[in-house]
Amino acid sequence: DWTMEAYKDIAIEKIREQVGDKQVICALSGGVDSSVAAALLHEAVGDQLTCVFVDHGLLRLNEADEVVAMFRDHMNLKVIHADEVDLFLGELEGQSDPETKRKIIGRLFIDVFQKYANEIEGAEFLAQGTLYPDVIESVSFSGGPSVTIKSHHNVGGLPEKMGLKLVEPLRELFKDEVRALGHELGLPSSFIGRHPFPGPGLAIRCPGEITREKLEILRKADAVYIDQIRRHGLYDEIWQAFVAILPVRTVGVMGDGRTYDFACALRAVTSVDGMTADYYPFSHEFLGETATRIINEVPGINRVTYDITSKPPGTIEWE
Ligand code: XMP
To answer: Which residues participate in ATP binding (predicted)?
Structure first.
């Protein structure tokens, strides 16, 4: 797409003008927006960019390694892999209220990001993957620019506190344009087409208390479910698909024995912008096959349900 190619060159020029020879830091989440922002910044200012990838222990199976490998090894970006799993899971221990969980994660994320950013010599700019719809949303909700309510990965308020200036090269773009730009920058299409993943990660797919055991089970079940969706060629038809592990054990039978394991819920929705959503009408064959695979392949789960709530009245996530 030559239009996006031209846009890319202009955006790169603008970044160079703004940043000069100063250092830039960026929180890399592995999501499409921050990934495209990082790739664009890298093309514009090369090694003046350092990305911080915060591993809060609430990521999907192999997520941290895959994201870090792609940006560090494949695309040659400077990436700090902040392994803060013990910190996050420690502070979340015993917490079951959804808003409390979100607040803890948001606060720790900012603390951790700040700690790593402070170690980067001479950083003057903070890059964010803010999109045009985020700008509109934040203006209508808070009256101020550049403070997004969407995600703690858009670290609102932090730039001022740290004395950093913002670089937001995607501010004029919609999601589909960001994807086109990502393509132009050489990000693999499997990466660009990924479903959105929330900042608090698996925490909001583990209603109630989070334990390492539940997270481990959830990761495995989610990987099987996504594999099923990909095998059936349905991934790109779906806005978001994931497993939630329920805070309840139920009785089952396996062989001659009784089991007493966790139940889980599969979620899959179609949506245009995440504001409203319909549940995805999987065939009964698909659902049956997926349930069988999860129960056979994931120790700790003995019951699978499918969530057929649309939004509204439900939300996409379980918390
Ligand atoms: P809900 O569950 O509110 O989700 O219908 C709508 C979209 O927003 C994502 N989501 C979040 N993203 N931080 C995020 O970065 C959050 O706290 C959060 N909560 C929900 C959700 O994955 C869906 O795409």
So the answer is: 29-35
